[in-house]
Amino acid sequence: MSASATSVAEPKNCEIKKKFFNIPTAVEHLKSVGVETACEYMVRRLIVTGQIAHIRLGKSYYVSQAALDAWLSNHERKAK
After folding, report:
1. Helix (H) or strand (E) holding 6
2. Residue extents of the structural domains in the chain
């Protein structure tokens, strides 16, 4: 078998960039977008109840900015 037959082409633009927050940083992000009542307990409850996707590495939890923003947009109240 030749080397060209076994090589796999690398997909272009396959780089995935996501911004992840630990819990205190997630609280800061929520407060920066206007959720003044955000606290670490609130973010932990969102994680434990499965309302936002997360990653656990060791004892630490990480939440993507996209997951937080999606949760915010789903819980937005429309003005009357």
Report:
1. helix 3-6
2. 18-74
Nearest CA to 56 among 20, 29, 28, 17? Answer: 20
Residue 34, sorted as left (phi over 0), alpha (psi -120 to 50) or beta, turns out to be left
Q: How far out from the chain centre does Cα 46 lie?
A: 12
Angle, CA of 48, 35 and 38, to the nearest 5°: 40
Tens digit of each residue's pLDDT (9 = 90 or more) over 14-47: 555 679 999 999 999 999 998 999 999 999 999 9
Location of structure tokens 């915010």: 72
- Residue written as tokens 């969102």? 46
H or E stretch covering 80: none
pTM: 0.72
Q: Do residues 38 and 31 lie in contact, with contact meaning Cβ atoms separated by under 8 Å?
A: yes
